[in-house]
Specification:
The complex is a heterodimer of chains A (about 120) and B (about 190).
Chain A (H helix, E strand, L loop, with lengths): L4 H4 L3 E4 L3 E3 L8 E4 L12 E11 L5 E7 L6 E2 L4 E3 L4 E4 L8 E2 L3 E5 L4 E10 L1
Antiparallel strand pairs in A: 1-11, 2-11, 3-10, 4-8, 4-9, 4-11, 5-6, 5-7, 5-10
Chain B lengths: L22 E6 L2 E20 L7 E2 L3 E2 L9 E9 L4 E5 L20 H4 L8 E4 L5 E6 L9 E13 L2 H9 L5 E4 L9
Parallel strand pairs in B: 1-10
Antiparallel strand pairs in B: 1-2, 2-9, 3-8, 4-8, 5-7, 5-9, 6-8
Classes of the chains: A mainly beta (about 120), B mainly beta (about 190).
Amino acid sequence: MTVGYLQARKGVRLQGLVVNIIVAANAGALPIFQQSTFAAQVGTRTFRIKRIKGINLSGFNTILNIGIGAAGAVVNVIPSLWVFNNLNFDFVEADLPEVEVNADLMAWAVAVPIQVQIEVEELG
Amino acid sequence: MTELYPHKSGLGFMEPVALIGHNVCVLYGSTKKYQKVLYFEPVPPFQCLNIGAILAQTTSPRTAAPMLEVFDNEFGQYRWYPIDNVQVRLWLPQVDGRYSLRNIQVPIGMEILDRDPCLHLTEFNVWEDRHPFFEAMNFMDYPLTQCRIMAQGYRFVTEALKASVVSAIESGTVACTYVVASGWAGSTR
């Protein structure tokens, strides 16, 4: 078997916890997947977003932002996602850009509460 | 690249290190056991160890894997992989790390199934009841509720060779396959 680029870049599929976003501001951003940074680990770990599942219970159609940085200063790593009131949303691999993340991934919304869970592929 | 893999295996799935009637020399520490293979059978993939829960950013104790032991005058040839998101180091015996380079003892994670699908480079051997130990590191920011190790391979039933055959092997006139069943501490001189 030839070890090609794509195979060599394949990672381990993991999921984050179910996170309830309850503060409608960048300052209310919460981590939805935390990068593995243990000092004793062998190699550096990054991850790619493969699925974003959740429900908008805010009472409004609103915007969900996914990014990196400290709460209050989160910068989007993918475009904002429009999520409809009282409905589940489920963005899967084909909907998401192949962004590689090298920090804790954060989420915040313009209206809350929104419940989010993420699947990632961790590489390292 | 695959033709460079060790342990008499080419491309594809696992192969036994020796066949019935072959001579082997099992190396365990500084001892050599010259044996003849009487019988062997496959060991399908099974869960040989569950180290248990591991807190986030924590390394487990070196945990014994007695499920990989075989009977007297037998050795096991195994390949393995973890099915939880950890980096696992193999120790055989408890104080000798396997896959050791000068500056690092190489761990195995779940990625091994993509990078070495037939697990050639995870191979190790166990002589009788000299079982290995696994040490798992949960490098994530999330705790693990279990840490499971899968193993597969072959069990070989052997008998000791006569001294005359051993002498012939050591003089190079009779063929023998050397089977490494322990780690090697290394030396920096």
